[in-house]
Specification:
This is Helicase. GO terms for molecular function: 3'-5' DNA helicase activity; ATP binding; DNA binding; hydrolase activity. Keywords: ATP-binding, Helicase, Hydrolase, Nucleotide-binding. By secondary structure, the protein is an alpha/beta fold. It has five domains: 187 residues, no CATH class; 149 residues, Rossmann fold (3-Layer(aba) Sandwich); 95 residues, no CATH class; 78 residues, no CATH class; 138 residues, 3-Layer(aba) Sandwich (Rossmann fold), CATH 3.40.50. It has 30 helices and 23 strands. Strands 3-4-2-1-5-6 form a six-stranded mixed sheet, covered by helices on one side. Strands 9-8-14-15-7-16 form a six-stranded parallel sheet. It has a five-stranded parallel sheet with strand order 19-23-22-20-21, with helices on both faces. Helix 12 crosses helix 20 and helix 13 crosses helix 19. Bound molecules: adenosine-5'-triphosphate.
Length: 739
């Protein structure tokens, strides 16, 4: 390791001179950006901003390019610079020294945004621009005119150090080469609570996937820690750069396994200057409702599999509880009697051509027709149109339709599945008794806890697509509804009131509620229309159930896709069915594939242990090469069940001394209650977490508790244990509990 990397007097003078040289350039960049910021204010003050919204927008951009590069403008220079400076590592992170055959030497600086000086000379090139590609693509075998690639390590605007990679066998005499290479430096450092961007050290094979064609479906596969997630996120930033108009207006959706995952990655894109991307966990894809709970494996399997669609189809066509069974009334002096059987026929007929929540008019029409058939033999004096008018205007008919065909929230249909009798009816010939019970119990659990599970959300989406959105009520009806609600405010736990006059149905919330009732919590807020995106990025794609593929697919029908996964880490047990649903989501879009084979996360000693475990049961697992050795092997200890809390506490203490960053105690449900207190050892640094929630995450060190139980409790069995064993970057302790 190089001496200059440690603070203090040990920096050799030639390194200090290089740092000072780079500092001078960085200073120039910041002062130019400050000027650019002032110019933006001027330009806006002069009213040029008008051009933004009309068709002269392009010309306006060109005009401003004369002042400073467009990218800097996109960043609203001053404002964005301030936020970049505050939160992230340096704006300028790289330098290329090139030697072209004909043109001689050239120096290019690479950064998060492009900046030019007064003479329009580039001071920094955006990392995504073609002129920056050699920074990532050059290798000693194919140097692309690069002599030296340098990574600048900065904090705010201060250059702390440099790391060089030489692309030629020997450096020219006038060129100083510093450090062991930036990649190793980046990999050995402490992991924070959140993923960092890798913009300074993207490797060539990663760069190829990042800059690949935006069309169709890009599949990125590779074993644990191979950078799939981070590459996919940089690809999202690249797509925004290369076709901002399309992707910013159409939107990019990033879907990951859990909210812990979205919290973990949420800073990567902003650190690259992009904050227009929508991040969602699988339990959060449907607007208006969230599911975070994890189901028991049997229930998760039933809910994820496509057979559930037929169950939902039966449920969604059924009568809501308490719906009237017949219509009896007098219209124009004639008795109308529509009994249960006839009403069911009408229901079936209407639903053949209409979604329930959009069928109100069709229902009234069909009821009117049926009534007309009944009364026609007895009326000589009335024509059909007149009868239908009177039927439709009849108050009793109106009241009947309101009850018999009331708007149905898709979540209500799921809650009907908590009733054993209904579940039996809907699942007959489709599910085994055990599966039907698992389904019924999981919905009863939702009603008990007031929380949806992650798997439920895909079902909400499916039923929502069947029923159509609940329509707004006409204005005059809303007032009535609102008053009724406001009368009982305290009963509902209302904390704040803002009467907005646009309240409709049980959603579109104009006041905040904190309902004590579990059912009410489950139905809070309105389900809105599935939004379509221009690009959909799915991480941990191997975990999506068929129903989840359908849910995500609805949001990407016209999109291009980036799909990231590793089959060996799968927690979804029925691979073939998921593949079918995934293919359906992609349709006939063309595909390109990239494979990552270097594990950048785990020290080799840790990964060897994990690889051995997965190979025993999944011989064809995609095993990457771990590039970093620490000489420290995982500690594997056998612990009696009674001593598990002490052992976990002790192991965590030792690891806290050995690493600087986060330590995770990964424990199956069976032990978690006993281990909660371990997090108190170092709040913020230690967390106790279930194996499924570690997907996509990493820590400096982990304590993996009871591997056998992790395998037993997880729907993906050994594959989920493999996930747990590949989360530690530097140290791992495994506590085995003999059965
Ligand atoms: N070129 C790189 N430079 C520096 N760090 C890198 C590079 N590529 C990957 N990494 C680091 O390697 C770690 C693993 O990356 P990432 O989480 O994207 O892998 P993954 O393939 O998605 O893993 P998993 O499938 O196990 O969730 C991260 O800390 C990431 O920052």
């Amino acid at each position: 390791m190089t001496a200059h990397r440690t603070a203090g007097p040990v920096v050799p003078p030639e390194v200090a001179a290089e740092v000072a040289l780079e500092q001078a350039h960085v200073d120039k960049v910041y002062s130019e950006l400050a000027k650019a910021g002032r110019r933006v204010e001027l330009v806006e003050a002069e009213g040029l901003a008008r051009g933004r919204t009309d068709r002269t927008g392009v010309a306006r951009d060109e005009e401003i390019t004369g002042l400073f590069e467009r990218d800097a403008l996109m960043f609203s220079a001053g404002k964005r610079r301030a936020s970049l400076e505050q939160q992230y590592e340096g704006l300028v992170f790289g330098r290329l020294d090139l030697d072209h055959d004909k043109r001689g030497r050239e120096v290019r600086y690479i950064g998060r945004i492009g900046v030019r000086d007064d003479d329009y000379e580039p001071l920094v090139i955006d990392w995504r621009a073609p002129a920056a590609s050699a920074f990532y693509q050059a290798t000693p075998v194919e140097p692309m005119d690069v002599l030296r690639r340098r990574v600048l390590r900065c904090r705010d605007a201060v250059v702390l150090g440099v790391e060089d990679d030489l692309m030629v066998a020997e450096a020219p005499d006038d060129m100083v080469v510093v450090g062991d290479g930036a990649l190793m430096a980046a990999l050995t450092r402490t992991r924070g609570a959140q993923m960092r961007d890798i913009v300074a050290t993207i490797q060539r094979h990663q760069d190829e996937a990042i800059r690949a064609s935006s069309r169709g479906v890009t599949e990125i596969t590779g074993g644990p820690g191979t950078g799939k997630t981070v590459v996919a996120l940089h690809r999202a930033a690249y797509l925004l750069y290369s076709d901002r108009r399309r992707y910013e207006s159409g939107g990019i959706l990033v879907v990951g396994p859990s909210s812990a995952y979205t919290a973990y990655i949420e800073r990567v894109l902003p650190s690259l200057g992009e904050d227009t991307v929508t991040l969602r966990s699988l339990g959060d894809v449907v607007d208006g409702t969230t599911g975070a709970r994890l189901d028991e494996p049997e229930a998760a399997r039933v809910k994820g599999s496509l057979t559930i669609r037929r169950v939902l189809s039966r449920a969604a066509r059924d009568l809501p509880p308490e719906a009237p069974q017949q219509l009896r009334t007098m219209v124009a002096g004639h008795p109308v009697r529509l009994d249960r059987q006839l009403l069911q026929q009408i229901r079936r007929r209407v639903l053949r051509h209409h979604q329930h929540n959009l069928a109100h008019d069709a229902v009234v029409e069909a009821l009117g027709e049926a009534a007309w058939v009944q009364v026609r033999p007895h009326v000589a004096s009335m024509e059909k149109p007149e009868f239908l008018d009177r039927f439709e205007d009849h108050l009793e008919v109106e009241a009947f339709v309101q009850d018999w065909w009331r708007p149905i929230d898709p979540r209500e249909v799921l809650l009907w599945l908590a009733e054993p009798a209904r579940v039996r009816r809907y699942t007959q010939d489709l599910l085994s008794d055990a599966d039907a019970d698992a389904l019924q119990q999981s919905m009863a659990e939702a009603l008990r806890t007031g929380e949806w599970s992650a798997a439920d959300i895909a079902l909400v989406d499916d039923v929502s697509a069947r029923l159509g959105l609940v329509q707004d009520k006409p204005r005059e009806e809303r007032g009535f509804y609102q008053i009724e609600e406001l009368d009982n405010l305290s009963d509902y736990g209302v904390t704040e009131v803002e009467v907005a006059g646009s309240r409709s149905q049980a959603a579109d919330v104009t006041y905040e509620r904190n309902p004590a009732d579990a059912r009410e919590r489950l139905l809070l807020a309105r389900i809105s229309k599935a939004e379509e995106y221009a690009h959909v990025l799915v991480d941990e794609a191997q975990d999506l159930s068929p129903m989840q593929w359908r849910m995500v697919g609805r949001r990407g029908r016209y999109a291009s896709w980036t799909v990231v996964g590793d089959a060996a880490q799968s927690s979804w047990p029925v691979e073939a069915e998921a593949l079918e649903a995934r293919n359906e989501a992609f349709g006939s879009k063309q595909r390109q594939r990239f494979h990552m084979s270097t594990n950048y996360r785990n020290a080799r000693e840790i990964f060897d242990y994990a690889a051995e475990v997965i190979r025993r049961e999944v011989p064809d697992a995609d095993i990457p090469d771990a590039v970093r050795e620490t000489g420290v092997h995982p500690v594997v200890t056998s612990v009696a069940p009674d001593s598990i809390a002490d052992a976990a506490q002790e192991a965590t203490k030792l690891l806290l001394d050995e690493v600087q960053g986060a330590v995770a105690v990964v424990a199956p449900a069976r032990w978690r209650d006993r281990l909660g207190h371990v997090a108190d050892l170092a709040p913020g640094r230690v967390m106790v977490i279930d194996p499924m929630s570690t997907k996509g995450l990493e820590y400096d060190a982990t304590v993996v508790v009871d591997p056998t139980e992790i395998t037993r409790e997880s729907p993906g069995g050994i594959r989920v244990l493999y996930v747990a064993l590949t989360r530690a970057a530097h140290r791992m302790t495994v506590l085995e509990v003999p059965s």
